[in-house]
Amino acid sequence: MAPTPTFVIVGAGLAGAKAAEALRDQGFDGRIVLLGDEPHRPYERPPLSKDYLAGKSEREQVFVHPEGWYGENDVDLRSGQAVAAIDRDVHQVVLADGSRLGYDRLLLATGSSPRRLSVPGADADGVHYLRRIEDSDQIKDTLATSSRIAVIGGGWIGLEVAAAAREAGLQVTLIETAELPLLGVLGRQAAQVFADLHLAHDVDLRLQTQIAAIDARQGKVTGVRLADGAVIDADAVIAGIGISPNTGLAADAGLKVDNGIVVDAALRTSDPDICAAGDVANAAHPILGRNIRVEHWANALNQPAVAATTMLGGEAVYDLLPYFYTDQYDLGMEYTGHVEPGGYDRVVFRGDVAGREFIAFWCSGGRVLAGMNVNVWDVTDQIKALIHSNATIDERQLADPGHPLDRLIG
Ligand SMILES: Cc1cc2nc3c(=O)[nH]c(=O)nc-3n(C[C@H](O)[C@H](O)[C@H](O)COP(=O)(O)OP(=O)(O)OC[C@H]3O[C@@H](n4cnc5c(N)ncnc54)[C@H](O)[C@@H]3O)c2cc1C
User: Fold this and answer.
1) Whose C-alpha lies nearest to ligand 1, atom 38?
2) In the prediction, which pLDDT does 3 show?
3) Residue of 49, 95, 103, 110 to test ligand 1 pocket, by largest number of atoms within 8 Å of CB
4) pTM score, two decimals?
């Protein structure tokens, strides 16, 4: 490395900002350049479908750091600067304007982008996706000026937008191809909780429903045409049909890419001078025993400290269990751990499922693999301990709220 090394971070989202912070926290006194293609300093996305969208929090609250932080910490934040290529042979990134910037170590924190609808009419005015702050602003305006919207996709973003729209007093139709929203992530019993929640708030849920086209008049959305020919009238459409990791730079540079940028548990790519973190990283996970790409806030928050250690030549592995949360209406939820469809044999419920105040545990052979607490708080550490213990847990005790969680492990 050069006497005063330069560490370049591509992607000024949560992971990029936290990586700059971690490098300074870990004593790096070389040059840090943080390059982001958005015109803002790094901000957090979860409020964009919750408080910020609902107009309950101000723009200033979404930023990762106060404005002065970058200067105070000698982080050269360059907003509005897209990186077009990585020239690994000479250790340089090529910016969109053709200029070049050398790096000793590089971190790719390029995040992900919403999948787009591919049906006829999908480019009509009034079709929205939600990833950036401008998207949230536009949807907020839409909620203020519309009376009915269609949400396409019953994943986390679709459900959160549906909740915000209902709370703003709009009629909401939510269209989902599966039998239940979140079916793939949560399985039937827990997914039903979210379906019931939205039905209780008068969302018109259209399940097992395919869309055929977006109908428009004079280029402006008027509705969604379903595969069976029915039309759902709507002033606007918000599509939340999943995201794709932004792997283009890495793939073009010849790094190993497979559902994200493939990294080891130290978050190193197939090039030892390049790391990746956040939504874009498909990382080897020592506890899960497989690679996993996590599209959630806590992963983008916590992986960068490990990436920073690796970039500085130290040893660290990222072994935190996946964790995420959602807020919809008066339901708050946290989920810890990871299961695949078919990767568990039972879901054990503890508490009042109908009253939406419970914990669900995904178990295999009596061992807890994941836990979801709904309107029950301060149990994440206990759920983590159950998963880490790998112990066989008595199912009746697990289901019994009278039996303390921290006394389940023998
Ligand atoms: C609306 C919304 C709500 C969410 N709510 C929750 C929630 O409730 N709970 C939860 O756990 N997670 C939630 N998430 C997910 C969470 O926000 C993401 O996991 C997190 O933002 C990932 O951070 P990141 O830094 O890896 O990527 P990003 O936040 O995507 O940041 C990557 C940045 O890199 C930039 N970039 C990409 N390519 C280039 C390039 N070539 N040159 C320069 N810059 C580039 C991108 O434009 C972007 O600014 C939500 C996401 C959204 C969109």
Assistant:
1) 110
2) 80
3) 110
4) 0.97
